[in-house]
Amino acid sequence: MNDYYNNQYTGVAYINRIRMVPVSRGDDFRALTLSVKSGKKDPETGKAELTTQLDCKIVGTQAIAMFDRLLDKVDYTGDKKPVISASFQVGDIYPDGYVSKTGENAGKQQFVMKGRLLKLQHVYLNGERFAEEIDGPVLDGPVKLSQDDPDFDEKVNNLKSKGYCYDSEEALWYKPTLKEDSEAA
After folding, report:
1. CA–CA separation, 39 vs 168, rounded Å?
2. Around Cβ 150, how many Cβ atoms within 10 Å?
3. Please, is 84 exposed, middle or buried when counting C-beta atoms within 10 Å of its C-beta (0-12, 13-18, 19+)?
4. Tens-digit pLDDT profile for residues 12-56
5. How many whole angstroms separate alpha carbon 150 and alpha carbon 141?
6. CB within 10 Å: which end of the chain, N or C, has fewer?
């Protein structure tokens, strides 16, 4: 039985504040903020009419794997902040409020939308494709499978269903566009 009603919201957003959240009682958890642009673009500035911030706890297996890979690659300490965008799937969105303790809004009531991040796809880091998702495992290039793997046949069928082809000379699985990209490089 499912523990959530799981109303879902999908879209494209910029990803900010990738972080592990320490908890004094219980387990730390993964979180990030999605900046979702919507409405009409201003013809002069190109800015969106509305930007909604979604504070998300990461709960989906695929989203956790993608988060862990991003956390290893993203550097917030340099002069230039990373630009990360992705399509997303968030479940059970709800409004929440808090009183700001610091900054220009100290002492003021603030509102934020929260949700459970289920999936991240089509992730771009600084304008370049970061990784590709295939029903669970996160891939960013050719795939090598071991015939000793007990799930070998299932993984082969999954790759085939996603358009991957086997290259016997290299003993790797490629999606045709991935192989063409790697040969061009």
Report:
1. 49
2. 7
3. buried
4. 999 998 999 999 998 999 999 999 988 888 888 888 888 889 999
5. 22
6. N
Q: How many residues does the chain have?
A: 185
Closest residue by Cα to residue 165 from 143, 181, 184: 143
pTM of structure: 0.65
Pick from 159, 156, 154, 119: nearest CA to 141:
159
Helix (H, G, I), strand (E, B) or coil at 62: helix
Separation of alpha carbons 126 and 130, rounded Å: 9
Cα gap 16→31, rounded to integer Å: 10
Any idea of the CA torsion for 130, 61, 67, 157, to the nearest 10 degrees? -20
- Going from the C-alpha of 30 to that of each of 89, 138, 150, 164, 172, the distances in angstroms are 16, 17, 30, 31, 32
The whole-angstrom separation of Cα 128 and Cα 110 is 34
Give the Cα separation of 170 and 167 in Å (integer). 6
State pLDDT tens for residues 147-159: 887 878 888 887 7
Task: Report how far residue 81's alpha carbon sits from residue 100's, in angstroms, rounded to the nearest whole number.
Answer: 24
Tokens encoding 93: 């969105």
